[in-house]
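Dig into my protein:

:::
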Amino acid sequence: MQYLKSVIDDEIWYFEIDGQQTAYRQIVARQEGACRVSGSPDFYLTDQSVERMEGDIPIESAEFEAVWAKAMAPYQEEWNRVRQRYPEGRRVTGAIMFFSIHGIHIALSDGGYAVTAYEPVRSRVDHSYLYPHYLIEGTVQGVDDVNCWLVLGNCTMSGGTDGKETILRF
């Protein structure tokens, strides 16, 4: 992985990117101290390749990790509650929020967030279900403490929705 820092107006943007310039983690820090992160609960991650600009500064992973830890600190207490609420092996239900390099992002029905790999779900379900607001059920297989989300496996979908928004079918 490579790490970049970019100063744009009153914001400092930090990126963790791979060789294809795909962002895996991102932090946007404002001068007044507020941050938005790509992890839970902000999910503020570019959906395009990161284009290097003049003035971008390569940084060490240690600098990125220090900024990440500080930006994620306000969410740790809630994350610890979510981890306790959802032990490994528990079956959970939620609604698809969006898709990213990490997989399918899910808002759990009882609070908290999870991610599951896209391909195993796609290979098992009707493709018309793979849109935001469709319900998905899976088994907690682990946690991602870096991003503050659960990792699900053995996911199934029945075609139900959370009823929060009109579903577009193509």
